[in-house]
Design goal:
29% of the residues lie in helices and 33% in strands. By secondary structure, the chain is an alpha+beta fold. The termini are far apart.
């Protein structure tokens, strides 16, 4: 009577361990799925930022009047075409304010896999920055106040990336 039988209940049962492992497995799986989704959205945002950055590059080149190869150009521009929805072109304009013959291609930028141009203010779209201010020409004219470039991605059909250029202020925004 003075001595009670001591029962050792320390530790976990096999059932408790299995339940714990299943819960950790579910949490890990959900975290991995959401990580991949976030990674895809980040690639989408980076593509829009790259286009905005290239617009700013053309704008800055027109402000300085000289490009990386130190050659003087009439103007700098970017050309978009929905028929070539996976790429766009940076070029030096030789005076007509439109992309075409005689213009020197500085770089053809390929968009990341599965990201394509889905909409333009007008198709095709040529944006030219002419020194010294720079004056912004949209399809060879200064009539439009702003242009919009939209992107789509196969994984997120409802999500649209957008780059906007305000011709009057020169502001470039991406979202």
């Amino acid at each position: 009577i003075f001595f009670k039988k001591i029962i050792n209940n320390k530790g976990f049962t096999l059932a408790e361990m299995m339940v714990t492992l299943v819960i950790f497995g579910l949490i890990f799986t959900l975290a991995l799925v959401n990580f991949r989704r976030g990674e895809r959205l980040e690639a989408f945002r980076l593509a829009a930022e790259q286009v905005a950055s290239n617009l700013r590059l053309a704008q800055t080149s027109a402000l300085t009047g000289i490009s990386e190869d130190e050659a003087l150009a009439q103007a700098y521009g970017i050309y978009f075409n929905l028929n070539e929805a996976g790429q766009y072109v940076l070029f030096k304009d030789q005076g007509d304010r439109l992309y075409g013959e005689g213009d020197q291609i500085m770089e053809t930028i390929i968009l990341p896999e599965e990201i394509t141009l889905s909409g333009l203010s007008s198709d095709p779209l040529t944006i030219v920055f002419a020194p010294p201010k720079p004056t912004i020409y949209i399809n060879g004219d200064i009539v439009l106040a702003a242009v919009q470039i939209n992107f789509a991605r196969a994984y997120f059909p409802a999500k649209v990336g957008r780059v906007t250029l305000n011709r009057l202020t020169g502001q470039v925004s991406a979202r």
